[in-house]
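thought: user wants a sequence for this fold. calling inverse folding tool.
action: design(structure=
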């Protein structure tokens, strides 16, 4: 994004310096996923909000880096839990190194992000962002504890998705406002809700692409969610239309052909369209939260960020 591309480049360089450790293996593991690239949605989100509400402060730039470190740490742990072999088209850290190294690298990034968070010298922001780290763990626990549970409801899926994905955007949106000069509390709440709805839309579309995407675009195995029993929005919608799905999921996709059959069942229903509609509802809710911002290039970019969520291919 041209508007903040120079700041994102600075963030990349600073993060690379931040993750240096005295142990070369730990440093290599922590750097591996960063070097694979990524969409950098979270730092982009923080920097655009910073610019939309005023001048970008150094503390807000640090917050952009911290959110990306927290996100990457959670990915390292998620890949271990999910036994994932690919992430962004390259071997996951647990595949290239080991589960133990991947977990330690994730812990290292969480610790580093907490240290730099404390250095912001803003107690309320420290409390707010620290809480979302526990939210990430809560989301992962909820997902793991409901694997292949065919009675899982859409409301529970939305709540789990908030903890697992949307909480980071919601909390960082509000924290960005807290670090600004003379920004009313109502603005912070608006940016919290903007992040919440944007995060939910992003997660729902991620779950859609897990079924409809191409491996070359996604950089990971297609169908990974239902292979591991993660019941996503498309699957939940399809369960109401294809009763045969219940049998496949309750036997935990134990046969080789089960995963492909689940995918075909979902594609034969209106589940993908229903999930996309749900994502669009959250995008519309997110855009409504931008009404409190004064017109600017940054506001337009936030609008585009929300709209691109439902048109992305990876």
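)
observation: tool returned 314 residues.
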């Amino acid at each position: 994004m041209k508007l903040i591309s120079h700041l994102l480049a600075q963030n990349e360089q600073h993060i690379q310096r931040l993750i240096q450790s005295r142990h070369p293996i730990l440093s290599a593991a922590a750097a591996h996923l960063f070097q694979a690239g990524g969409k950098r949605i979270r730092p982009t989100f923080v920097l655009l909000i910073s610019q939309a509400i005023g001048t970008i402060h150094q503390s807000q730039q640090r917050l952009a880096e911290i959110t990306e470190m927290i996100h990457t740490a959670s990915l390292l742990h998620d890949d271990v839990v999910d036994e994932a072999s690919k992430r962004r088209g390259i071997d996951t850290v647990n595949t290239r190194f080991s589960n133990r190294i991947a977990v330690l690298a994730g812990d290292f990034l969480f610790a580093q992000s907490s240290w730099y968070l404390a250095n912001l010298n803003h107690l309320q922001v420290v409390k707010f962002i620290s809480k979302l780290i526990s939210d990430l763990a809560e989301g992962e626990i909820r997902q793991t504890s409901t694997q292949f549970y065919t009675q899982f409801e859409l409301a529970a899926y939305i709540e789990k998705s908030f903890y697992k994905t949307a909480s980071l955007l919601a909390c960082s949106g509000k924290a960005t406002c807290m670090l600004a000069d003379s920004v009313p509390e109502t603005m912070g709440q608006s940016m919290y809700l903007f992040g919440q709805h944007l995060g939910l839309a992003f997660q729902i579309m991620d779950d859609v692409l897990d079924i409809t995407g191409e491996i070359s675009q996604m950089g990971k195995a297609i169908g990974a969610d239902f292979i591991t029993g993660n019941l996503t929005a498309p699957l939940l919608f399809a369960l109401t239309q294809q009763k045969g799905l219940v049998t496949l999921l309750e036997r935990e996709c134990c046969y080789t052909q089960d995963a492909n059959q689940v995918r075909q069942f979902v594609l034969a229903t209106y589940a993908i369209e229903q999930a996309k509609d749900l994502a669009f509802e959250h995008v519309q809710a997110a855009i409504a939260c931008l009404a409190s911002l004064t017109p600017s290039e940054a506001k337009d970019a936030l609008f585009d960020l929300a709209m691109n969520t439902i048109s992305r291919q990876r």
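thought: summarizing for user.
answer: Here is the designed sequence. Strands lie at 86-87, 90-91.
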